Amino acid sequence: MPPNTEHDGSFHGASAYAAIRLDLADVASVFRGEPRLSDLASWRDKNHFRSDSVIGLAATRRLPLIASCLWEQQATLSDAAADFWKRSIVDALTGTILHSLPPDTGGPLPSAMRLVREVENYLNSVGARPVHISEICAVFNVSRRSLHRAFYDVLGLGPVTFLRHKRLCAVHSALRESAPAEVTVAEVAMQHGFIELGRFSRYYRLLFGEYPSETLGIHNTAAAPDVVAALQERRLG
To answer: How big is the CA angle at 64 (ends 95 and 135), to the nearest 5 degrees?
Structure first.
């Protein structure tokens, strides 16, 4: 819906919808890398996009979950985590549009190897904060399709999977450096861009061979060797 127009729609039976409002001043930076969406003229005309069933189902499941968890964690959410979740919400609501765009025709692209190397350097420079794929596309002015092609050509996996591995490593480090009395696994996961704890735990265990709660508990045990020795003595006795 373009600016200064009324929202309209046709609904049949029980219906619900979610809407997001974007300032035109932010459009170019949010969608940089997607030539059509980063062009303000594209947003001044009304458009209709048919929802992809898989994308639509994922969005309707994910959006309420994000909203609920953000409400619970809002007091402790860092600025970096807030930006990540803002991008995630935009991503969920505009997924149908991105899926409907024609193939890239934006001219020559950087070599896949160079692009992947530059992304890795960027991730190293920002430290442990969560980075959303839309941020990568904006920083390097590259579309998602081009980014996917580059990562599959070089690493054999997609950029979303690559970014998830980086975030899992950041969570692992954070849990090892934290005490169970100070943080919970849910809080650390949320700060690093994970919201579905069951799925997050499976990813974590596949990568590190233990559950996140074990990492947090092992750190606590390592910090108290006298207690461990006493417990071992008691078992032997």
So the answer is: 40
